[in-house]
Structures are given as C-alpha cells and as structure tokens.
Amino acid sequence: MVVVPTYNERPNIEALVLGVLGQGPRYRVLIVDDGSPDGTGDLADGLTDSYPGRIEVMHRASKAGLGPAYIAGFGRALELGPALIAQMDADLSHDPEALPRLVAAAGSADLVIGSRYIPGGGTAGWPLWRRVLSRMGGRYARAVLGAPIADLTSGFKVWHPATLASIDVAMVRSDGYAFTIESTWRALRQGATVTETPIIFNDRIAGASKLSRRIVVEAALLVWKLRWETRLPS
C-alpha cells in the first residue's frame, strides 16, 4: 500500500495514482487529503469508483502539515494490514516506475529509502540553489546525527509494517519535511535494517512547491534535538 499525502495536487494526483496502480495488481493507494481547496480530494474520490478496492481516500478538515498527514495515513495503513507500506510525494517527483525496485529491496531490509545521493541516483530539473540546499541539508543532518544514510531527507520509502509500528509514528513531532528525517532516525534507533536504492528525483511540472523557510529551519533544529535526546545503538 502506498500512502500519499495531498494538498492542492489536482494536476498531478490522477497520473500518480494510475502510475502506482500500473505497477501491478497488488499495489494499492491511500490518499490523505488535507482539505485541498483545488478539489484534489474530490478528484481522488472519483478515481475510487474506477478502481474499486485499490484506492482509499482519507479527508482531513484542513491543512495540518506533512507529518500529521503521514501519521494519519500510516495509522490507517497499519489497520489494513498490507505486506508493505510505501510513502511517496504526490507531485510526481517520485517515479512510480521505481516502486518495484524499492519493494524488491525490502526483501532484505526493514526500511528501504529511495536515495538521490548514492551511485545511480540524482535529481532532474532542479535549479542550482535547490540542488545545493538539498545536498548540504542531507550532509548536515547526517553529520549531526552520525547516521549512516546518504539521503536522510528522502520522502520515498518502503516500510515493513512491523518496523513502522515499532517507531510509534504517532509520537513523531515533526510537522513538515523534517518528518522524513525523524521517522528514519527512529527506525535506526530501533535497530532496523535500513538500505538505500538509487532513484532520480524529478522536479514537479504542475502545482506549487510546499517547501518554505519555516520547513527548512524546522529540519535544521530537529537534528540537534534528536542528537541531544538519543544516540544510535552501538
């Protein structure tokens, strides 16, 4: 099952859902919409009629942040009991064609991260400032935490449900994209086997990026909080 938080992603959501479902009959999608004023949630509801049993839509009253959306979606996914739980961005930055490779890698890992920063990975369509910000942000988080992960800020992941349940995701405090750092850190803290698989991250074509200065600052401060509070098991 693939969990996809959405907010104003009407131009992208249908293509993403069809791309995921096109990977095979075992793939299902759980959309968590934060009351998108552009009608993303309504469009997603319409897709459920065309693909019965393969799409579920959760409607939240208003925009509450990426972290809370994932917490709600992961909670529902764990209730449904799939073999694996994936997370993806809704803006087509994460290519659904890469999903089977991440799923295959989950055969020998508790958590698989789609990584831009290992051989074979990369970004496409980003301006220089965005590439520098992402690369330096990842190195900063890795250095502060001492985590052996090249792409701590990646939001393209495949989890074993038991691993996701073990990190008590409802207790993750991060609101924005820092959620991806904290959830991976919690998995490492639990002794989970984490591996990275190369992906190409594509810049969005339609819609507006949700990245903001507040989100960047939140992530920068979070890693120090995590370092002060916890250490990786030796």
Please give a structural write-up:
The chain is α/β, with parallel strands linked by helices and 234 residues long. The protein has one domain (2-229): Spore Coat Polysaccharide Biosynthesis Protein SpsA, Chain A, CATH 3.90.550.10. 42% of the residues lie in helices and 16% in strands. It is built from 8 helices and 9 strands. The protein has helices at 10-21, 40-50, 66-80, 99-105, 128-145, 161-166, 178-189, 213-229; strands at residues 2-6, 29-33, 55-59, 85-87, 111-115, 122-124, 157-159, 194-198, 200-202.
Secondary structure: helix percent = 40-55%
- The largest beta-sheet arranges its strands as 3-2-1-4-7-5-8
Number of helices: 8
Kindly report how far apart the N and C termini lie.
Answer: 33 Å
Number of strands: 9
For the record, what is the CATH homologous superfamily label? Spore Coat Polysaccharide Biosynthesis Protein SpsA, Chain A
From the 3D structure, determine the CATH topology.
Spore Coat Polysaccharide Biosynthesis Protein SpsA, Chain A
Q: Helices and strands, in N-to-C order? A: EHEHEHEHEEHEHHEEH
The geometry reads as globular
Major sheet description: 7 strands, mixed
Domain count: 1
Radius of gyration: 17 Å
What average pLDDT do the residues reach? Answer: 89
* Uncertain parts: none
Question: How much beta, percentage-wise?
Answer: 15-25%
**What structural class is derived from the secondary structure elements?**
alpha/beta
| CATH arch. level architecture | Alpha-Beta Complex
The CATH class label is Alpha Beta
